[in-house]
């Protein structure tokens, strides 16, 4: 099993969710996040005063899937979150040793 974590722009969430549903994904976790990468935030004007917004709003998606679904899921996220502009986000893939469904006690792929 693998865990995929993706940091994307908030307005792309629905497109990413729909793309993951089309490949047969069983579930995702979505978290609101703030951060910055190469873009280093931006400057805004509020009531005549300039201020720096260091942390930009992002959405973090987490999903644990079977190994054979990883490439499909990564491509679905990449294609649907892509705008071509700075700040599109990142995708991280890591290994999962085990998963346990609390309600039934199922383990491994059956728990996902």
Structure characterization notes:
The chain has 112 residues and is an alpha+beta fold. The protein is 20% helix and 37% strand. It has helices at 13-22, 70-81; strands at 2-8, 29-35, 42-46, 49-53, 56-65, 89-95. The strands form 2 sheets. A 4-stranded antiparallel sheet has the order 2-5-1-6, with helices on one face. A two-stranded antiparallel sheet has the order 3-4. A hairpin with a 2-residue loop joins strand 3 (42-46) and strand 4. Helix 1 (13-22) runs antiparallel to helix 2. The N and C termini lie close together (9 Å). The relative contact order is 0.30. The model has no long low-confidence stretch (mean pLDDT 90).
SSE layout:
Elements: E1 2-8, H1 13-22, E2 29-35, E3 42-46, E4 49-53, E5 56-65, H2 70-81, E6 89-95
Antiparallel strand pairs: 1-5, 1-6, 2-5, 3-4
Provide the helix percentage: 10-25%
The end-to-end distance, rounded to whole angstroms, is 9 Å
Indicate the proportion of strand residues: 35-45%
Query: Count of DSSP helices?
Result: 2
Q: What is the makeup of the main sheet?
A: 4 strands, antiparallel
Give me the strand/helix succession. Answer: EHEEEEHE
What is the structural class? alpha+beta
Using DSSP, what is the number of strands?
6
Quick check: average pLDDT? Answer: 90
Question: What's this model, at a glance?
Answer:
The protein is of the alpha+beta class. The chain is built from two helices and six strands, in the order βαββββαβ.
